[in-house]
Design brief:
binds adenosine-5'-diphosphate; OB fold (Dihydrolipoamide Acetyltransferase, E2P); single chain; seven-stranded mixed β-sheet; 699 residues; alpha/beta; binds magnesium ion
Amino acid sequence: MLDTATRNIKFLPGVGEQRASILGGELNIRSLYDLLYYFPYKYIDRSRIYKVNELGGHLQHVQLLGEIRSFEELGEGAGRRLVAHFTDGTAFVDLVWFKGIKYVKNRLKVATQYVVFGKPSMFNGRVNIAHPDVDDASTLQLSSMGLQPYYNTTEKMKRHGLNSNAMAKLVHNLFGLLTAEIPETLSDDIIRKHGLMSLDDALRIIHFPKNTKELQLAQYRLKFEELFYIQLNILQYARDRQMRYLGHRFAKVGDMFNRFYHENLPFELTGAQKRVVREIRADVNSNRQMNRLLQGDVGSGKTLVALLSMLLAKDNGYQACILAPTEILAEQHFATIRRMLGDLPVRVELLTGSTRQKERTPLFEALADGGVDILVGTHAVLEDNVLFYNLGLVVIDEQHRFGVVQRAKMWAKNNIPPHILVMTATPIPRTLAMTLYGDLEVSVIDELPPGRKPITTTHIFRNRADSMYSFIRKQLQEGRQAYVVYPLISESEKLDLKNLEDGYKQLCNIFCDYRLSKLHGKMKPKEKDEEMRRFASGETQLLVSTTVIEVGVDVPNASVMVIENAERFGLSQLHQLRGRVGRGASQSYCILVTGNKLSEETRKRMEIMTTSNDGFEIAEADLKLRGPGDMEGTQQSGIAFDLKIANLARDEQLLQYVREVAREVVNADPERNLPQYKVLWERLRTIKNMKNWNWGAIS
Ligand code: ADP
Ligand code: MG
């Protein structure tokens, strides 16, 4: 039988050496298999031709057959457009282009039969179609066509005759070679139970569907499979690990927890905090190692949950450790935790890169002999010479700066790996969390402590900055403080700094009667900490900064966050920055400053920011606007997404559904030896052996 995975694409009729090297270089298509799984990105319904006099604004995409009678160029500047008056004899419709006018004019001719495809809309009482696809009617075989596949191709491919039509021909040739049925890759019971199409049918139909109904079934089958194997992989990995590693059991809730909870806690826990503490408590009391992701919007009170968990460790005779991504944050945690514990007999220590050698020796000894109960630290804790007596719990704050590798390093600090609690304020949408951190259970704090006033967010244009300055001045007069943040524009650090320096100078002039701090990534950690301290203590009133302040810093007296060039930030980052204010009881404000000309997408982002304070809602919107590949956090974690057909933003329900299907398989067949699932485990192995495998964190 023909093995598509090993057969080089150059042997496919119509390809040859030169095209093979282009397909390989441009699209990474090297084998027949690669081509088989290169799916069309859209389809055009060629089964029906509409008449122009049938059109109205309500139709989805339509196909027309007729000719252009004349061209007209209208408007100026951004409104400049090319209009082609098109007719099939029943009526006229305007085809409109705002871009690529010259190209279109060169390519299209009057009095030639064209097939036009696009979405009609109404403008000034006339029907028009903006940026339609226009094909020479003679090149399309209309009568025989169902849905016509469209393949993405590159400029270079087009120059070598490999346009979408040519790709369709190659796929057609490929199916000519596939005389036998393509072997099934899901088990019979899954196919039957979930009403799936066979793989053979699905692959043929995804390239050449006759109608939308069968296309949808094919898409469903292929998405199902793609998401299923991602989840099977993650869940199997998580299960193996659970079997392999027992966890420390924290069986009791003891003195420290109880005394802290009943005597030291100055406020009542929120309902969400209580729920999460219960979830954690169930995990650590189960003989299994906990791996839990705690998501909670900025200010939702994650630190307290961490502290309660660490006290559980202490009560059961274990040490605990909390890791923060920066020294500033570690010091802040250290101070907060010490203050909250008051005179409870719990020894808390700090270890960062700046801890002096002569302090390290006694600290390391106390860690190794169990004298220290809670260690607060940065990356410095990961070093091999930091040894614990019996580390029972590790809390990792602001996970997205901490990769999978670092997590694994902490595991290795004990024979029995410690429980792991990962906390993040980057509200990763559930779908993404399941895929990125599918091996972690997820807890969510979806409630803010009472009494918080929602931050008022406004969007202003640069040329209205004067009113903003007087607003800031009022806040400063009331004793509040303010942040002004400039973006990092990665192409040029010099320019970034210039931006910041110019802004700083200007603000120094405007606010010459106040003291300003300046903070950027090029400063030494010591200088940064010093500036931050000056601001936190109220010595300076205005902090001008790049995004280095993004993570976790807590200055409750700050009430204004100005974000300059807000158009340059993604939604999640804007939300993170905004979260630096609104941490005290007073009303806080976030001001987004942009230029006057905004793209549609930017306008949407500003609108979402000014109307929503909900991090999860914003993260969902972000995922929809940008796609998961760009999500903050995914890049840092080094996890790429290469989904061929499923879409994490759109296929959330399906993802949750297949996760349960995969979980059933893992539970039913933990040893991976049931005959009916053999095909699944073999397929999973094959996928993971493919060169361009890059699903999820686990390989
Ligand atoms: P984050 O989740 O962003 O890390 P923090 O743990 O820093 O949030 O908490 C933000 C602030 O809210 C802190 O000052 C903390 O003391 C306070 N806080 C936490 N939980 C509660 C609660 N249940 N009621 C009132 N205030 C709370
Ligand atoms: Mg925090």
